[in-house]
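Fold it.
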Amino acid sequence: MSDTLSLSPPEMPADMVRTSASRRPRTLLYYSLWAVLALAAGIYVVAMTAKPAVLLDWFPALGRSLSQPQGNDARSANMPTPETIQLRKTLIATQTEVRRLRGLLAQRDADLRAKDLSMGEIKRELEAARKSAAGPRSTATDTAANDAPNGALVAADASAEPPARLAATAPGATPAAPRTFELVNATPKDTAPTQTAAAEPAPEIAIPPPARRPAEVAARIAAAQKSAGPIKQIVRATLPVTPGGEPRSSGIETGSVASPLALQAAKPKPADPVTDPIAFGPAVVTRSQAQVGVRLTAGPSIDALRLSWSLMTDRHGSALGALEPRYVTGSSPSAPYSLVAGPLQSENAAHNLCAELISKGIPCSVDAFTGNAL
């Protein structure tokens, strides 16, 4: 009974005791290794926090791996770099500048087209004015030619030179050259005499008769003539003159007034004035102070010259901005008006300005600064 109630710890086998004793050194080595790894990780964290540059110098591969984006961090991979941001800003600024330049070019093209249209309108108005000025003259000539029969002579430009006709009619003047005639709507015939156009008779003008004096005025004039009577003759007293002697004195003192011719003959002649010889000094040649300018272009009208001058000053304001525009006439029939700019200080300055303008494609020549204001 007692043997069954007593409890004693079970005894372990001998081989199990030996296995537990051999595991103790291995467990210590395992914990020591983990402690060393933990210490290295702590040192790494402290180094990356305090001085990462020193750690990157020791391990360059670590820096490359850190600079490359990781696949698990999509947000950091999509973030743009400063170089990309600067490149985008430069691209946006370039696109803005290109748009601005395109707008300026479009505006300039529109201005040039508007100016071309205005030039065309000015030319059309000039042509219309010329045709309207030449229209009545040609119409009158055609009408006279159509009204005249075959073989009639029509004077060419009959009213072109009225001063010459007046000078030819003056007494003692040299006869003018015969006028030229043009044969209009005529058929040449050798035997038939030339017929002259019959002039239309001038209309008769009724001239009113002169107004008569009223009866009262006539009666007054007749009464005045009757009351006046005959004109009495005035008799002047004369003295008898005896030959070879003096006239008799009648006791009346009379005076006489010498005639103007006698007074002029009795007046003594003045002596000739003494004139000293005139001495002339040495001849001095003085140059004319004519202003110097440059002749730029020519045009069919003054408005065309104004438009050309505005374009030149817009494009070449540094060279032409300080000059004054004028225009002169007498050029070719197609462009009778010429543009002159000035004044310049000397001919050398004018030549230099012309050389600069010719290099830019503008015609230029040195000329006198004359003409009317543009």
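The first strand starts at residue 153 and ends at 155.
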